[in-house]
Amino acid sequence: MLLDTYQTIARPSEGLYKEKGSKFLSYVYPVKNEEAIKVILASIRKEHFSARHCCYAWSLGLAHERFRVNDDGEPSGTAGRPIFGQIQSNKLTNILLVVVRYFGGTLLGVSGLIHAYKQAASDAISNAEIVTQAIEHIFDVHFEYMAMNDLMLLIKDEQLEIISSLFNLQCFIRLKVRSSRLEEIKAKMDKIDGILTKEITLA
Asked: How much is the pTM?
Protein backbone atom coordinates (compact mmCIF):
# COMPACT_ATOMS: atom_id res chain seq x y z
CA MET A 1 0.00 0.00 0.00
CA LEU A 2 1.02 3.62 -0.47
CA LEU A 3 1.99 5.63 2.60
CA ASP A 4 -1.26 7.59 2.50
CA THR A 5 -3.63 4.62 2.28
CA TYR A 6 -5.15 2.29 4.85
CA GLN A 7 -7.50 -0.69 4.95
CA THR A 8 -10.95 -0.51 6.49
CA ILE A 9 -14.40 -1.90 5.66
CA ALA A 10 -16.84 -0.53 3.11
CA ARG A 11 -19.95 -0.76 5.29
CA PRO A 12 -21.18 -2.25 8.58
CA SER A 13 -21.24 -6.03 8.90
CA GLU A 14 -22.31 -8.61 11.47
CA GLY A 15 -21.20 -11.99 12.77
CA LEU A 16 -22.23 -14.66 15.29
CA TYR A 17 -20.57 -17.28 17.48
CA LYS A 18 -22.29 -19.71 19.88
CA GLU A 19 -20.67 -21.64 22.72
CA LYS A 20 -22.37 -23.67 25.49
CA GLY A 21 -25.57 -21.67 25.32
CA SER A 22 -23.91 -18.25 25.17
CA LYS A 23 -24.43 -16.17 22.04
CA PHE A 24 -21.78 -13.72 20.89
CA LEU A 25 -23.23 -11.20 18.41
CA SER A 26 -20.56 -9.17 16.61
CA TYR A 27 -20.85 -5.86 14.79
CA VAL A 28 -18.15 -4.05 12.83
CA TYR A 29 -18.37 -0.47 11.56
CA PRO A 30 -16.17 1.90 9.55
CA VAL A 31 -15.57 5.04 11.65
CA LYS A 32 -13.50 8.22 11.38
CA ASN A 33 -13.66 9.74 14.86
CA GLU A 34 -14.45 9.06 18.50
CA GLU A 35 -17.74 10.95 18.33
CA ALA A 36 -19.10 8.45 15.79
CA ILE A 37 -17.87 5.58 17.98
CA LYS A 38 -19.75 6.93 21.02
CA VAL A 39 -22.99 7.23 19.05
CA ILE A 40 -22.74 3.66 17.70
CA LEU A 41 -21.89 2.19 21.11
CA ALA A 42 -24.84 3.97 22.72
CA SER A 43 -27.14 2.60 20.02
CA ILE A 44 -25.90 -0.98 20.44
CA ARG A 45 -26.22 -0.83 24.24
CA LYS A 46 -29.76 0.46 23.89
CA GLU A 47 -30.67 -2.29 21.42
CA HIS A 48 -29.11 -5.01 23.59
CA PHE A 49 -29.96 -3.58 27.03
CA SER A 50 -30.61 -7.09 28.41
CA ALA A 51 -27.24 -8.52 27.30
CA ARG A 52 -24.69 -9.46 29.97
CA HIS A 53 -21.69 -7.82 28.25
CA CYS A 54 -21.04 -5.36 25.42
CA CYS A 55 -17.30 -5.59 24.73
CA TYR A 56 -15.44 -3.73 22.02
CA ALA A 57 -12.24 -2.48 20.46
CA TRP A 58 -11.59 0.35 18.06
CA SER A 59 -8.69 1.78 16.10
CA LEU A 60 -8.19 5.15 14.45
CA GLY A 61 -5.24 6.38 12.41
CA LEU A 62 -2.82 4.94 9.90
CA ALA A 63 -0.63 3.31 12.57
CA HIS A 64 -3.35 2.73 15.24
CA GLU A 65 -2.37 6.08 16.83
CA ARG A 66 -5.59 5.98 18.82
CA PHE A 67 -7.21 2.77 20.01
CA ARG A 68 -9.17 1.36 22.92
CA VAL A 69 -10.21 -2.04 24.21
CA ASN A 70 -13.02 -2.68 26.68
CA ASP A 71 -13.89 -5.94 28.51
CA ASP A 72 -17.18 -4.59 29.94
CA GLY A 73 -17.10 -6.77 33.02
CA GLU A 74 -15.51 -9.88 31.53
CA PRO A 75 -12.22 -11.01 33.12
CA SER A 76 -9.40 -8.66 32.16
CA GLY A 77 -7.91 -9.40 28.75
CA THR A 78 -10.53 -11.95 27.69
CA ALA A 79 -12.68 -9.79 25.40
CA GLY A 80 -11.34 -6.41 24.28
CA ARG A 81 -7.84 -7.70 23.50
CA PRO A 82 -8.98 -10.67 21.37
CA ILE A 83 -11.34 -8.35 19.50
CA PHE A 84 -8.53 -5.85 18.90
CA GLY A 85 -6.28 -8.70 17.82
CA GLN A 86 -8.63 -9.40 14.91
CA ILE A 87 -8.50 -5.74 13.85
CA GLN A 88 -4.70 -5.91 13.87
CA SER A 89 -4.35 -9.29 12.18
CA ASN A 90 -6.57 -8.12 9.32
CA LYS A 91 -4.52 -4.88 9.07
CA LEU A 92 -7.59 -2.68 9.53
CA THR A 93 -8.03 0.78 11.03
CA ASN A 94 -10.71 3.46 11.33
CA ILE A 95 -12.90 0.68 12.60
CA LEU A 96 -15.11 -0.21 15.57
CA LEU A 97 -15.72 -3.87 16.44
CA VAL A 98 -18.31 -4.74 19.09
CA VAL A 99 -19.21 -8.16 20.50
CA VAL A 100 -22.40 -8.48 22.57
CA ARG A 101 -22.67 -11.56 24.82
CA TYR A 102 -25.88 -13.16 25.96
CA PHE A 103 -24.92 -15.50 28.81
CA GLY A 104 -26.10 -19.08 28.40
CA GLY A 105 -25.66 -20.23 31.98
CA THR A 106 -22.34 -22.06 31.60
CA LEU A 107 -19.02 -20.45 32.48
CA LEU A 108 -16.50 -20.70 29.65
CA GLY A 109 -13.30 -19.99 31.56
CA VAL A 110 -10.56 -17.59 30.50
CA SER A 111 -9.39 -19.56 27.45
CA GLY A 112 -12.97 -20.22 26.39
CA LEU A 113 -13.86 -16.54 26.56
CA ILE A 114 -10.77 -15.49 24.60
CA HIS A 115 -11.62 -18.02 21.89
CA ALA A 116 -15.29 -17.01 21.75
CA TYR A 117 -14.65 -13.27 21.46
CA LYS A 118 -11.93 -13.88 18.88
CA GLN A 119 -14.20 -16.09 16.76
CA ALA A 120 -17.15 -13.69 16.96
CA ALA A 121 -14.95 -10.76 15.94
CA SER A 122 -13.40 -12.78 13.12
CA ASP A 123 -16.84 -13.73 11.79
CA ALA A 124 -17.98 -10.10 11.53
CA ILE A 125 -14.80 -9.15 9.64
CA SER A 126 -15.04 -12.16 7.33
CA ASN A 127 -18.55 -11.04 6.35
CA ALA A 128 -17.35 -7.50 5.60
CA GLU A 129 -15.93 -6.04 2.40
CA ILE A 130 -12.39 -4.81 3.06
CA VAL A 131 -11.40 -1.74 1.04
CA THR A 132 -8.35 0.48 0.66
CA GLN A 133 -8.93 4.17 1.39
CA ALA A 134 -6.71 7.19 0.85
CA ILE A 135 -5.97 9.66 3.64
CA GLU A 136 -7.28 12.97 2.38
CA HIS A 137 -7.28 16.56 3.58
CA ILE A 138 -9.75 19.39 3.09
CA PHE A 139 -7.92 22.38 1.62
CA ASP A 140 -9.79 25.70 2.06
CA VAL A 141 -8.33 28.52 -0.05
CA HIS A 142 -9.34 32.18 0.25
CA PHE A 143 -8.05 34.30 -2.61
CA GLU A 144 -8.50 37.52 -4.54
CA TYR A 145 -10.48 37.48 -7.78
CA MET A 146 -7.37 38.26 -9.84
CA ALA A 147 -5.83 34.95 -8.74
CA MET A 148 -8.73 32.85 -10.01
CA ASN A 149 -7.35 31.94 -13.44
CA ASP A 150 -3.99 30.77 -12.10
CA LEU A 151 -5.61 28.82 -9.28
CA MET A 152 -8.18 27.13 -11.52
CA LEU A 153 -5.42 26.17 -13.96
CA LEU A 154 -3.46 24.59 -11.11
CA ILE A 155 -6.56 22.69 -9.97
CA LYS A 156 -7.15 21.41 -13.50
CA ASP A 157 -3.50 20.43 -14.09
CA GLU A 158 -3.26 18.63 -10.75
CA GLN A 159 -6.72 17.04 -11.12
CA LEU A 160 -7.83 18.18 -7.68
CA GLU A 161 -11.38 17.55 -6.49
CA ILE A 162 -13.47 20.68 -5.88
CA ILE A 163 -15.97 20.26 -3.03
CA SER A 164 -17.44 23.77 -3.05
CA SER A 165 -16.62 27.29 -4.21
CA LEU A 166 -17.73 30.92 -3.99
CA PHE A 167 -16.57 33.53 -6.49
CA ASN A 168 -17.03 37.17 -5.52
CA LEU A 169 -14.72 40.10 -4.77
CA GLN A 170 -13.17 37.80 -2.21
CA CYS A 171 -13.24 34.21 -3.44
CA PHE A 172 -13.25 30.85 -1.72
CA ILE A 173 -12.71 27.29 -2.89
CA ARG A 174 -12.69 24.01 -0.96
CA LEU A 175 -10.61 21.15 -2.33
CA LYS A 176 -9.89 17.56 -1.38
CA VAL A 177 -6.19 16.61 -1.54
CA ARG A 178 -4.46 13.29 -0.87
CA SER A 179 -2.07 13.39 2.05
CA SER A 180 0.92 12.35 -0.05
CA ARG A 181 0.44 15.37 -2.34
CA LEU A 182 -0.33 17.98 0.29
CA GLU A 183 3.10 19.63 0.55
CA GLU A 184 3.52 19.66 -3.24
CA ILE A 185 0.17 21.42 -3.76
CA LYS A 186 0.86 23.91 -0.96
CA ALA A 187 4.20 24.83 -2.55
CA LYS A 188 2.60 25.43 -5.93
CA MET A 189 -0.13 27.59 -4.42
CA ASP A 190 2.46 29.67 -2.59
CA LYS A 191 3.71 30.83 -5.99
CA ILE A 192 0.33 32.30 -6.95
CA ASP A 193 -0.14 36.00 -6.14
CA GLY A 194 -3.43 36.92 -4.50
CA ILE A 195 -3.95 33.83 -2.35
CA LEU A 196 -4.86 35.12 1.10
CA THR A 197 -5.12 32.08 3.38
CA LYS A 198 -4.93 28.29 3.22
CA GLU A 199 -6.59 26.19 5.91
CA ILE A 200 -6.05 22.43 6.01
CA THR A 201 -7.95 19.79 7.97
CA LEU A 202 -8.40 16.03 7.69
CA ALA A 203 -11.28 14.99 5.46
From this structure: 0.78
